[in-house]
């Protein structure tokens, strides 16, 4: 891959989201439809070719634009991929149904939070994306850092927050290791994918929770955990 496929001449590479924003500042108003086409083309190329093999030329051709048009919006391939990643993660969060968490029984709240933990919730290519970013960790560590910050972190934090709220309601044991529970839940999706290569069944999150819930639920049979687990 030539240098021109990675970075525009005379521009600094790897500027992150800030670099992408600064490259768009000033000048004529941008056409959102063009930016959307480029973002979608980048996402598809990332899934099919991987970061190292995808090129600015291919992305521009797929989007039906010229390379200068793309470079007026993103200073480098790295900047474009970071924005494409954030775009996909926003789409996933917007796909979550509105939930009144306070009205859910504890075990049902746990299950819903685990469903949202699935990287493929709104993107079937998410596992390939994670694998690609991990493979690039030595060459482009910033990609995996962006994935942790904007994807893995918020999803895991939502589950952890849910479990802490359930603990405050008396449904979860005070001594339960909630951090390891989150890791086990998140890792289950990757373990299943590596074992089967297929999308999990619609009951996969339920099966995870049904297995873990007895280990963390409060043993107070008269409390909310007892009612949820046995009622």
From TrEMBL:
Q: Which InterPro entries does the record cross-reference, listed alphabetically?
A: DNA-bd_HTH_TetR-type_CS, Homeodomain-like_sf, HTH-type_TetR-like_transc_reg, HTH_TetR, Tet_transcr_reg_TetR-rel_C_sf, TetR_C
Q: What is this protein called?
A: Transcriptional regulator, TetR family
Region described as Disordered = 1-32
Q: Where is the composition biased (Basic and acidic residues)?
A: 1-10
Domain (HTH tetR-type): give its ranges: 32-92
Q: Which UniProt keywords apply?
A: DNA-binding, Transcription, Transcription regulation
* Pfam families (UniProt xref): TetR_C_11, TetR_N
Q: Which GO terms describe its molecular function?
A: DNA-binding transcription factor activity; transcription cis-regulatory region binding
- DNA-binding residues: 55-74
Note the SUPFAM superfamilies from the entry: Homeodomain-like (SSF46689), Tetracyclin repressor-like, C-terminal domain (SSF48498)
């Amino acid at each position: 891959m030539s240098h021109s496929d990675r970075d525009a001449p005379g521009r600094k590479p790897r500027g992150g989201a800030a670099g992408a924003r600064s490259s768009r500042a000033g000048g004529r108003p941008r056409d959102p439809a063009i930016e959307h086409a480029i973002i979608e083309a980048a996402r598809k190329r990332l899934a099919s070719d991987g970061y190292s093999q995808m090129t600015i030329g291919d992305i521009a051709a797929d989007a039906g634009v010229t390379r200068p048009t793309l470079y007026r919006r993103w200073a480098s391939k790295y900047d474009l991929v970071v924005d494409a990643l954030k775009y996909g993660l926003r789409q996933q969060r917007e796909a979550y149904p509105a939930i009144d968490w306070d009205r859910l029984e504890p075990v049902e709240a746990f299950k819903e939070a685990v469903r949202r933990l699935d990287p493929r919730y709104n993107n079937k290519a998410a596992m390939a994306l994670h694998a690609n970013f991990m493979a690039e960790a030595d060459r482009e560590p910033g990609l995996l850092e962006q994935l942790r910050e904007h994807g893995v972190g918020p999803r895991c934090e939502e589950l952890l927050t849910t479990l802490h709220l359930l603990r405050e309601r008396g449904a979860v044991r005070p001594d339960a290791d909630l951090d390891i529970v989150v890791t086990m839940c998140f890792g289950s999706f990757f373990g299943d994918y590596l074992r089967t290569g297929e999308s999990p069944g619609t009951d996969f999150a339920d099966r995870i929770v049904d297995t873990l819930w007895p280990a963390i639920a409060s043993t107070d049979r008269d409390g909310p955990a007892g009612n949820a687990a046995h009622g």
